[in-house]
Amino acid sequence: PLVNRELTTQMKSVGEAMAIGRTFKEAFLKAMRSRELDVAPDLPATAAATLAALTVPTCERHDLILHAFRLGADREEIHRLTGVPRFFLAELRDIAELEREVVEAPGLDADLLRRMKSYGFSDERLGQLTGRTAAEVRALRLEQGIRPVYKAVDTCAAEFEAQTPYFYSTYEQENEASPGERKRIVILGSGPNRIGQGIEFDYCCVHAALMARELGYEAIMVNCNPETVSTDYDVSDRLYFEPLTVEDVLNVIDNEQPTGVIVQFGGQTPLRIAAELTAAGVPILGTPQASIQLAEDRKQFGRLLTELEIRCPAYGIARDADEAREIAERIGFPLLVRPSFVLGGRAMRIAYTMEELLACMETAVDASLEHPVLIDRFLEDAIEVDVDALSDGEGVYVAAIMQHVEEAGVHSGDSACVIPSVSLGEGILEDVRRQTSRLAQALRVRGLLNVQFAYQKYTLFVLEVNPRASRTVPFVSKATGVQLAKAATRLILGEQLANLGLPQRVVPEYVSVKEAVMPFDRFLEADSRLGPEMKSTGEVMGVADTFPAAFGKAQTAAGVPLPTQGVVFLSVCDTDKSAATILAQRLQGLGLRIVATRGTARALLSLGVETTFVNKVSEGGRTVVDWIDEGLIDLVINTPYGHSARSDGFEIRQAAHRRTVPCITTLAGASAAVSALEAARKPGVTVRCLQDLHAGGTR
Description:
It contains 25 helices and 22 strands. It is an alpha/beta fold and 699 residues long. Strand 11 and strand 12 form a beta hairpin.
């Protein structure tokens, strides 16, 4: 919310969608619905306000142009304000005029319906215009025999018959996508990359397609992301470049008549539509749809945990502020507030007061209008653990237990994590394996499962269970040498876990660290403070013989190399001051100088750590922000305190990103960074290729 939304010469997008049609209008409207927006654009009420909004280019620009035409704006005026070529504006104006024609028509007859579909209008949009549901429009369309056909994009330029064409839908007569003779399965891709869902899910889809073909099936891929490997025409037997909506996927299924559909590899995108696909009679392969919904329904899932005698944090489910207030009074603060069925912890917040809780509820309700908001007691000072596992419904294979570097409260996509665990004992690891197995069996998982735990005060809590591929599957596969997505595909298609020949208890003889890549250099107004809502746009992996060396490699790969000399600014909240003094002593031992604000400096000086005072922003004069802007600081360690977005900590972190100074916002992350600096002083950096690592055996 703090980021300047204006589009400039500096790129801000993190992904893209692609659509193909017979006309610009058809391709454009298909591309617009491929964006998978969580929240519809907030459009102005009047034409004047809309035109004013068009003077600043933002990601809603095309929505605003269409809205302006709907309100009667002139093409020349929009051209003057936006610089968009007149041809494209004429096409968008035609779309708005077609919408007006549908609204004014006495009914939606076959001719009008076919014409609107040929222009790319979705059943959902036609329903909005005519007061029907998308399902009612679909039923009317099928009753009138209006179905799409599929045209091929010839990958051989008509020189000879293409063996690997890909297809797009249109409303004409001849269908060029004829189903094959072998059994076929449809794999739903992950759609456009965005924060919370990226290339890691495409990795799983590609491996699923390759394995399905290896097993003798025709692999049918549906996706709309041109950046991915899954949309390379030779990965699958047939590729459909289509939006991942219920309507478009059902159209492909009607054409292909597959044995079934795999939804567990594409992240949240296929899961969002899985229930409607099941209701339409589509066979979902792998984990039953009822289990997927049970894992997302906190009330049902809570009952399951009680039956299994597995602990979870105290929780409640709220649909409005009054219910949230009652939950807070019952279970106490701090609270983790999160919508359900969203990507990357969108709108997830930690609330320490009633005022903060009510503010969090407004955002959470907007992010997930059709589902209730989950409110959990937040476990402070807990170690978070991620598990990826495979199951055939009965047997369970725990592929890896990942320990997060940051404590619970930082989204798993933003936290660094390590394989194998560096501080958890074998007893707690065995508890993790046992509880993961019981959950997989209870949910009748067939394929992949991800479980997130928190370990606090010698007690293990389940935070979340996802009966699908997780974003850590590629990392675990590379760290252990077990290709999880391929193994899961074999299970989904009917094989038994015992027949896969998987190695038992894979504990590598080396250490692998996954680190998140943050986009703050593109969004300088954003706060780099890590929390439960995901902010990273990518990840890297470091491998070495020890955790500190692997963490240091990962930091360098992520574009934030740690300084080996210079000045470290240290400012921590009161609860972190005791641990921060030990950290400062280690930094000083490495020859780095310490600069701190008054409260932190006093604590450090009292323990003999030589420290230079610097003013906070709120104290005026020459402040720490001035030091950073002048290039006098080489590393910032700032653990957040205060809940104002414009607090001193925010200004410090923003200045660090302006100057590309590494900025660490958790004490656990800072401790790992200092360990990496200490390891870097030791001679001998090992470099080994992945093939050699996996050939070297496991312990």
